[in-house]
Amino acid sequence: MTKIAPTPPEITYQDSETKGRYVARLLGVAGEADLTFSKVSESLIIADHTAVPDSMRGTGMGSALAERLIADARAKGQRIVPLCPFVRAFAMKQREALADVIQW
Q1: What percent of the chain has pLDDT over 70?
Q2: pLDDT tens digits for 25-72?
Q3: pLDDT of residue 5
Q4: Residue ranges covered by each domain of the chain
Q5: CA contacts within 13 A on the Cβ side of 45
Q6: Which position among 29, 35, 63, 104 has the lowest Cβ density within 10 Å, counted as fewest Cβ atoms?
């Protein structure tokens, strides 16, 4: 059974020269979910890992992080290699719609 997040998550972006990270927090819920990626070039990134704490399981945090990664990559004209099993499974469910941004 999927829990519905009581409020939309607050997703922030952290950046370095070679890595990036999205962090999701829910008001009133302990912990944070995150999705990390590596920058291969200006136009190619690798989704490395998605982690969601038990306190947020079933709230859609992993999907919210993947959607944000995809939206930002699309806006920047980047392609994503979905090495992370969660991002890969998320993208497979929408393979045709994400063909412009996912690099298999």
Answers
A1: 94
A2: 999 899 999 999 999 999 999 999 999 999 999 999 999 999 999 999
A3: 53
A4: 10-92
A5: 28
A6: 104
Amino acid at 21: R
The predicted model scores a pTM of 0.91
Instruction: Read off the tokens for 88.
Output: 């890969």
- Burial track 9-29 (b if 16+ CB lie within 10 A, e otherwise): bebeeeeeeeebbbbbbbeeb
Q: Which fold has domain 10-92?
A: Aminopeptidase (3.40.630)
CB under 8 Å to 21, separation ≥6 — which residues?
13, 14, 15, 34, 35, 36, 37
State the alpha helices, DSSP H only, in the chain.
61-76, 85-92
